[in-house]
Request: fold
Amino acid sequence: MQRNIDTLTKTIREYLDRNSLTDPSAPWEIKKSNLGGFGIFASRPIEIGEVIFKDHPVILGPRAALTSPLLCVNCFDKDNLKPCERQCGLRLCSLECQNSSNHQKECKIIRQWQTRPIPEEVSEKLFKVLSPIRSLLLSDQDKAVVKCLKAHRSDQHGFEVNVMKNLLHFDLKENEEVFMRFVCSVLDSNAFEVIVGHEDHQSSIKGLYPLGSLANHSCTPNTIHVFDEFQHMIVRATVFIPKGAEIFHSYSRFIWATPTRRFHLYKTKHFLCKCRRCQDPTEFGSYVSAVLCKVCKVGRVIPIDPLVQNGKWQCEGCGEGVNRKDVASLSSLLGSALNSFSPEDIDFMLRFIDKKLKTLVSENNETVVEMKYKIIWMLGHQQGFTWTELSDNLLFVKEKFCKDLLALLETLRLGQCKMRGLLLYEFYRCCNEAKRRQVKSGNVSKICENDMKNLLSEVADILMYDVGAPAEIKKLWPDEMKLQEQ
Ligand SMILES: [Zn+2]
Ligand SMILES: [Zn+2]
Ligand SMILES: [Zn+2]
Ligand SMILES: [Zn+2]
Reply:
C-alpha cells in the first residue's frame, strides 16, 4: 500500500474511532519528518502534562525474549496456568480464559495447523510466537492498519515463523506465512513493551500501537507514555511543546551514554540516532559519556564528533587525544564489574563509587549513574534492606542518590519523564522514613509536611493513568480515574 499522509491519517483516525478513542481536540497531526518517513507533530502548543493521544493495541501478545516467563495467554496472569483442554498447546489460568472468544479463535487456527501433538517442552515456544499468529485473526480493516506501518526488511526477522514451521511442524498456508513474516518485522521495529498487572504482580508483554509507533525516537523525548488498565497507551507531554514541533518518544534508556544508546538502537531498531543529545559531545553538559584523562588526571575525555563511530576522543583539559577503543574497553570493564555486584556487596559498591570510579570517570558517567540507580532500587526494597532495616547512613545514601539522579535528568532536559516520577517517589519515601525515625526518637521532625504533599502530588501527576503506579499514588488521582480503576 502506498504510504502518504492522507491515507495514513485516515487509516489511523478511523482505527482510533473504531476503538472509541477519538478526541476532536487532540493536538497531533501526521507530517513528513526531517528524519525521513513520517512523524507526529504538535498541531497547536501543548502544555506540560497534557494528553497528546491515546492509542489501542492492534496486536497484543507475549514477548519473544528468551527470559519472558509463561503467562495466561488471555489475561496475562502468571498464576494457576494449565494447558488448554482442547490441546492447542497454550496455557491459561481458568476455564473462563480458556473459553474467551479471543482464545477460541487462536485455539482453532493453531489446532488446524498441527500435524502432530505439541510436546510439553516446546509449548513454551508456541507461547513466544503467539503475537504474529494473532495478526491473522484481525479484521480486514485492522490488517490494513498493520499494513500501513513501517517494516524493516531484514533476514533476522520472522524467526517466529521458522519456529512454527521447523519446530512446531505447523502446516501453514503460503499467504498466512507471508503475512506473518511481514508482521514479525513490523512488530520488531514498532512494538512497545507493555506492563500489565498491579504493583507486585506485574508482567511485561508487547503491543503494537499504530499511532504510537509513528512517533520517532529521540534520546531527549518530549513525551511520556504509560499503559492503563485496558492496555491503552497514553502519551503526554513532559515539556512544553510549541506548535509545529515533532513529537518524540524514546526507545532507549536515559541513563546510558551516547555510544551505548546508539549501539543499542542500531542493534534493536536498526538506525543510528542523530538527535540533539547524540550530537552534543557533552550531552547537554551532563558528561554521561566522559571518562577522566590519564595524562592530566582532571580533564574530561569526550568524543570530538559523537556521530562518528570509532572517531577520536579528546581531553577537554590538556587536549590529549584518546582512542575510542580505550574508552570502550574501560566502559565494558566497568560494566561487567557493575553486573557482578549483589545486595550483600553494598558497602563494597559504595566504596567502589566513592574511591575507584572517582579516579576513572566523570561523576555522571553511565557506570556511576547505573550503579546509583541499582542501589536506589535495592535500598528500601530488597530483603535485608527494607525501609525499617536500613541504617541511618544507608537511608541517607539512598536519599542523596535520588537527588543526584533527579538533577541529572534535569540536566538532560527530560522534563516530567517517568523516571523522574519514580525517583521522586523513592525520594518521598526516604523523607517519610526519616520523619518516622525523628518522631520515634522523640525529636521534632524537621521535614515539612507541605513539601512532602507537593512531592506526592507531582508524582501522582507524572504517573497519571499508569496501571503500575503505586497504590498510594493512585489514591491521589482525580475521582473519574479512580472509578475506571475498579
Ligand atoms: Zn487468564
Ligand atoms: Zn486452546
Ligand atoms: Zn539520540
Ligand atoms: Zn588531560
Notes: The chain is about 40% helix and 10% strand. Residues 293, 295-296, 299, 315, 317-318, 320 surround zinc ion (ligand 4) (CB under 6 Å). The chain has a mean pLDDT of 92. Residues 418-440 form the longest helix (23 residues).
